[in-house]
Here is the input.
Amino acid sequence: MTATEQTRLVGTVTNERNQPMLGGLFTPLATESEDIELAVTGNLPAGLNGMYIRNGPNPMYEPRGGYHMFDGDAMLHRVLMGEGVATYRSKWVRTAALQAEIAVGRSLYGGLGELHLPSRREVGSAGPIKNPANTNIVNHAGRFLALYEAAPATEVTADLSTIGLHTFGGAITGPFTAHPKVDPRTGELHAFSYLSEPPYLQYHLINAAGEFVRTVDIELAEAVVMHDFVVTEDYVVFVDSPLLMDLESALNGGSMFRWEPSHGTRIGVLAHGETQTRWFQAEDAYVNHFWNGWVKDGVLTFSGSVLTSEAYSTSEASAMNTEGAQADPGLPTRFTVNLNSGAVVQERLDELGGDFPRINEAYLGVENRYRYMVAFSGVPDVIGHFDTVVSYDDLTGDRTTWFAGNGMVVGEAVFVADPSGVAENDGWLLAMVTPRGAAADSSASVAAATDLVVIDARDVAAGPIARVHLPDRLPFGFHGNYFAAAGTKPRV
Here is the structure.
């Protein structure tokens, strides 16, 4: 055993209370992995020369109370690809909060599942609220950032080692969105923070070199939940919805989130370089994730996955809970805002419920043709049980799908542009596919471990052209991205 292997962390989750988000699809891994060469069925395209990293919750210690998947410690899963070969590595993100728990060998924090505030004596400078860094991972100006929207960014390295908090020179020391956007034309990073106290919303701009440029305070009437936003060539766009933060409720054992129709829904449009936001009234909607947005002939168009938000909370019966997803599948919806007249139209694009919208990121902010997501082929019964990859062609109106199979769950499908391609959809979709049950099905038709599948984006219905077989059955995760190797210039 090597020294590196000897220092790998080991989890101790036993799920003594039989909590649903610690079992089945969400069962955490107990150990990290170090550079395991993987078997591949099919052939990896020559253009895949880089690494795919996915972030997601993987608690190290038995929770001290009720557990929600949003609470789990981040574990990063990296698949390194090149010359047809793939290797796998996984590591926990060693946040200050997790380090405090490692020091005592047990969980110290609560979370959305059951809020507990540890004493300063227990956690020191890590603070009373845990930053699990478990939602997304992005790269900007040479820095890899593991993100959790209720806390500052956490910097990691390409080999998944943890550096620590990254606050952009002390300019952003509070919450930082898990969905910042990199403008493919300027290299600038657009980001925001939603807050529990006034001004409740802040927009941040980071230049291409990774240097903080400015923050714009955007005054809202109440503390709202805002997971994602839209960036166009000339504007940033926010949806102020009736989904509110309720810290008082959380401190008294209730839900952290509350749907309040009296709040209404507004679309905020902030021009690049300006400080005043224009607001447009809209029908009530909470948009979990967006595809893209652009402005043409004075009309702002954007689309995303809209939830039936009355069910969106951390309560037992909600869509954020394992038992409530059937009440609230996200539905593809297009918004148009006439910037001159103020008219806002919402158009349902599909009745197929799904989420994790993705596009070719080279088209961020400008009109594009193709959209991708993962969906439920039937009626969803538990959160995260997507089983279908979907491709939309907005020029022809065609919808193309690939069904992963009975008992299989598909994670976010990330578009990777073919460096030698020309068309918008020249590239591949990368997605994790995992058996649904707590353990491998005895049937030979169900794989024991997770596969990273590679699908030709031009022919989604044909299914995977390659399957990379991971050594473990990964728990359900959130977001990931592909990062081209140095010297491999992505097409922009």
About this structure: The chain has one domain: 3-484. The longest strand covers residues 286-296.
